[in-house]
User: Fold this.
Amino acid sequence: TFTASGSVRYDFEESFVAGLGVYMRYLHQDQDRKSKSPDVILPANVEDITLGADYRIGYLLLSAEEQWHDSSLSPYEATRLNAQYRLPLGVGTALDATANYDMIDRTTESTTTTIATVKGRWTQRIDQTLSFALTATWRNETEDPSSTVEAFDQTFEIFWRYRQTSVTASVHNSFVNSNADDTSYLTVQLALRREF
Assistant:
């Protein structure tokens, strides 16, 4: 197997494009597999190019990239869009929000998968020993032409730490809707850790 890879990135720090970064990643792989049954074990030859850019302004980070993955096994093209926002609200307290959109086109299978995710998280520090977090996540996944899955998750976590002892408790609730059926489940976890 022969593999060659590299990446380059440039960040703008002045003028009206300050906060903008552009990058490229490249991967080349040649694999020679010798077998009496060449149809059973196929060589994984890959030519992969990714071009992307991200832009930070204040608490907001935006990014986009395009990937061309030419492979002898499973070629695809992918588009990825992402937005992240983090707002500090004090010591140990913050509001985070992310949104992602991925589109993957499997060229040889005539199948396109799109995944959209929106997530919000609030972390709150009560005092030096106690804090909690609330998280909500919405996800929609569609595989053209036949499959759609939509999920909505909610999680509450509480953290307590005193010296070498820590306790974590969480409650996770989830609703999942798909073409096949609708499901929901509730999970409760409790973890105790003692450091010596």
Q: What stands out?
A: The chain has a mean pLDDT of 89. The chain has no helices and eleven strands. The first strand starts at residue 2 and ends at 11. The CA atoms of residues 16 and 141 lie 37 Å apart.
